[in-house]
Every structure is written in structure tokens, then in C-alpha cells.
Amino acid sequence: xxxxxxxxxxxxxxxxxxxxxxxxxxxxxxxxxxxxxxxxxxxxxxxxxxxxxxxxxxxxxxxxxxxxxxxxxxxxxxxxxxxxxxxxxxxxxxxxxxxxxxxxxxxxxxxxxxxxxxxxxxxxxxxxxxxxxxxxxxxxxxxxxxxxxxxxxxxxxxxxxxxxxxxxxxxxxxxxxxxxxxxxxxxxxxxxxxxxxxxxxxxxxxxxxxxxxxxxxxxxxxxxxxxxxxxxxxxxxxxxxxxxxxxxxxxxxxxxxxxxxxxxxxxxxxxxxxxxxxxxxxxxxxxxxxxxxxxxxxxxxxxxxxxxxxxxxxxxxxxxxxxxxxxxxxxxxxxxxxxxxxxxxxxxxxxxxxxxxxxxxxxxxxxxxxxxxxxxxxxxxxxxxxxxxxxxxxxxxxxxxxxxxxxxxxxxxxxxxxxxxxxxxxxxxxxxxxxxxxx
Length: 439
What we know:
The model is unreliable at 1-18 (pLDDT under 50). The chain is an alpha+beta fold. The protein contains 8 helices and 7 strands, in the order E-E-H-H-E-E-H-H-E-H-H-E-E-H-H. The chain has one domain (4-62, 116-282, 322-438): Outer membrane efflux proteins (OEP), CATH 1.20.1600.10. It is elongated.
């Protein structure tokens, strides 16, 4: 009874009716139905769509352009006197509704051959940013898993508290009925009856508060994992890991912890940003080439029709001389940012290792306390049974029996709460050491 807890909820959905919800299933439902994770996945897709070789400037640019313009004009031409056109041609020409047109098309290619390796550095920066995006998904998933685990064990604990107060209420109800019967026969005083009634009312209050807490926890669980309020049974057996080693956990944390990995990747991104800023001082070489065609026709020009087509290619070299210190300032800022990322990486690792160490010692201490609480509960259960027998035989007063029952209630609640808290602490260790999704 102590190590094996079964919880049944009265939900209304037919789909999940009478199903047993294991912790693994709760996690699966929660991850599948999480809108937060779906949003972060979309954000990651946007990042990866933005970060590619083309955005890094490593691919050529090809453009095709084409155009046409035409006109119809009335034209009057008058030549200068020194022009001798010969023949009978006069010095003035008039053209009515003279047509002209211009058709042009071209295809061009530009490609940056060299820019201080900025394109390669940018592409490597993009790759690491994509890795950061993937780790952000993992970070969100781990947080969601831990949230579900905490809610799952809270639900187990709330059910156990409710069951404890329900038992106490039934015992108090039985005591009150016995006291009422004895009072009717004059065997006990009115004061003893009133004391039994007070105890019954207090246990009823405790039971109703436990029922509210259980209902609230149940609704939170339903909302968290995204399933309808249905009949769910939580069946769970508490098994603890007694083989955790702190040194091994620290090694795994340094290499697998999501926050540490993100900090390391942010540092690498800053390294490439510094290289990109440095490459801005280098000259850039661009290759360009185009093939063009044009057709020009005019009824008033000396040339009535002209076709042009051909290939053009060349290199363009740009050497940075002065840019109002913008490149120098950008390089300095990138260098400062790299130093900040190094400090951040070190701080995050120290914080995570400290949290892991604290969680480890809390967990090992909780395991020891669980054994003591279990032994204490077993002893109190025996003394409670003895008190019940003495009370039934008239050798124990109402007050003494009440104190015995309250002591048992508190021992059961303390042990149940410790079970859930210790198991949650174990999963926190798994999260910190980067093993949560493997469990």
C-alpha cells in the first residue's frame, strides 16, 4: 500500500474511458498536444529556411531582364546650313506618325569570388545557429517533460492525501456514532459527544479540502497533456535509482546538458561573427558576365534598324579604404561580444554543475529519509491499531485515540509527499545531466 498507489478519476470522455494512464503515456500525450512545442518547431523551420548557402553569399546571382518601348510621333527636322545633303533634299523634313521601337533582353551572372572568406564564415555561423535552434526544441521538450512529471506525481500525492483523509473521516464518523449511542444510554457525558462531533467536522473539512486539491490537480493534468476530462487511472510503482554517481553525472552534464550546449554553440557563433567582422577589411573580387540583345527601329533616324547582341564579362575589385570607422567599430563590438559569450558559457556551466550537485545530495538524503519515514509509518500503523483495540475495549479515551489517528494521518501524508518529491528530484538530476529523454 505504501509503495504502490493507484488513482482513479471520474472523467466523462468515452475515448479514454477506463484507461490506465502511465507516466510514459502522459508524456507522449503532452508532447504531441503541446502548442508551445509546435510554435518553437515552426520558429526553428523559419531559422533554417533563412540560414542557407545563398544567404551566406556563396551562390551566384543570375538575372534575366527584358523590355520593350515604342512610340508614334509627328516629327519636323531642320538641318544646319553648313550641312550639304546633296541632291534635291531640302533643309527641312517632316514626318507624320513616324514609328520607333526598342526591344532589349539580357541574362546576367554575378558571383563574388573572394571577400575575405566572409561567405564561408557566415555559412558556418548559420550551421551553428541551426544547431542552436535544434537544441532550443530539445530544451522546450525537456521542460515540458519535467512539467508533466511534476504534475503526474502531484496527482499521485493528492490522491493519497484524499484517501488518508477519507479513511480518517470514516473512522471519526464511526466514533461519533458510537459516542452518540453511548450518550443516549448515559454511558458518556455531553462533553465527550461534542468532542467527537468536533473531530468529525474537522475531518470532514480536511476531506473536502483534499477533494478540491485533487480536482484542481486533475484538471491541471488534463490541460497539460491535452486530453479531455475522462476516466483515467494512474497506476505507478515507485522505483528509485540508487546507483547514481556524482562524478559520472558531472561528466555527462558537461557534454549533454542542453543549456551548456547552447552556451557553447553561442560562443562558436560569436567566433565566426568576429571572423566575419575581420574579413570586412579584405578586398572583394566579383565576377560578372552577361549576354544581351537589342533591336532598335526608327522611321526618322538615319539608321532604320539596328540589332546588337553579344557577351560581356569582367572582374570587379573593391578595396576598402575608409568607411567612417564602421568596420573597425563592428570588429571591436564582435570582439567584446565574444568575451561576453565566454563569460556566459563559464557562468552557465558553473551554475548547472552547482544545481546538479545540490540536487544529487538532496536526492541521496531524501532516499535515506524515505527509509526512516517508512519505518516510522510502519511503527505508527502498529500503534494506531493498538490504540483502536484499546479504544474499542474502553481502555483509551476519545482524546488519546484522536491523537493516535492524527499522528497516523500525518505520517502517511509525509511519506506520500516524500515519495513524490524524491522521484521528481531524480528526474531533475536526469534533466541536468542531459539524460531526461533517455529515461
